[in-house]
Structure formats: structure tokens, C-alpha cells
């Protein structure tokens, strides 16, 4: 296994641990049916991925995307948990919250990715 692959694995582990810590902290402090911790994690992770991808687009080594994009962001964000939480809301009859969670997360994550990319352009691409 290459050094970069090992680094991506380590970064993925770090992302997963950070996701768990944030999720547990938010759930302990905020009581709501809306899965705000998962939504926030996925939006922040999308912004980071957009930023890292932009850095590579504008000249940073491609290994940055491998380690921080695939590794860290892949371990940090969680499509499967977002899907499960959305289905759980729908099964409980919270159809509006399920729709807000699904559509809102998707729209916010796309926008955040674009903002992350734009920030990288502003910092290094101009």
C-alpha cells in the first residue's frame, strides 16, 4: 500500500472520529427531531471538499484531494446516516421534516461545495 493510501486511511479515521464527536456533542445539547448534527456535518464536509478540490484545480498536488478529500471528507461526511435519519422521520410520519432534511441537505451541501471552491479560487486561483 502506498504512503498516500495510508495517509488517506488515517485521514478517514480522523474524519470519522471528529464526526462522531460533533454528532454526540450536538445530540447531547440540542433536542430536536431534525437531524441538525448530520446536516451540519455533511454541509461542512461538502464545503471542505469543494475547497480542497479547488486547491488542486488551481495547482496544489492531487494527493491533497486523495488524503483530505477522499480520506478526511469521506470519513467525516455521512450519506448513509443522512439517508437513515430521513427514512426514520418519514416512518414516524414526519414527512415535512423528512423532505426538509433530504432536500435541504442536498441543496445546502451543493451550495457549500460551490462556496468552498470559490474560496479556493479567491485564495489561490486568481
Automatic annotation (TrEMBL):
It is a multi-pass membrane protein. Its main location: membrane. It catalyses: fluoride(in) = fluoride(out). Na(+) binds at residues 74, 77. InterPro entries: FluC. Pfam families: CRCB (PF02537). One of its GO terms (molecular function) is metal ion binding. The keyword Hydrolase does not apply. One of its GO terms (biological process) is cellular detoxification of fluoride. GO terms for cellular component: plasma membrane. Belongs to the fluoride channel Fluc/FEX (TC 1.A.43) family. This is Fluoride-specific ion channel FluC. It comes from Gordonia crocea. The gene is crcB.
Amino acid at each position: 500500500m502506498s504512503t498516500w493510501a495510508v495517509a488517506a486511511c488515517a485521514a478517514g479515521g480522523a474524519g470519522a472520529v471528529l464526526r462522531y464527536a460533533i454528532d454526540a456533542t450536538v445530540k447531547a445539547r440540542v433536542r430536536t427531531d431534525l437531524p441538525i448534527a448530520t446536516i451540519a456535518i455533511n454541509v461542512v464536509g461538502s464545503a471542505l471538499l469543494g475547497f480542497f478540490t479547488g486547491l488542486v484545480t488551481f495547482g496544489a498536488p492531487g494527493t491533497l484531494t486523495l488524503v483530505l478529500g477522499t480520506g478526511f471528507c469521506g470519513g467525516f461526511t455521512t450519506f448513509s446516516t443522512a439517508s437513515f435519519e430521513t427514512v426514520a422521520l418519514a416512518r414516524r410520519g414526519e414527512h415535512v421534516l423528512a423532505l426538509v432534511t433530504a432536500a435541504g441537505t442536498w441543496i445546502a451541501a451543493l451550495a457549500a461545495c460551490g462556496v468552498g471552491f470559490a474560496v479556493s479560487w479567491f485564495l489561490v486561483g486568481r
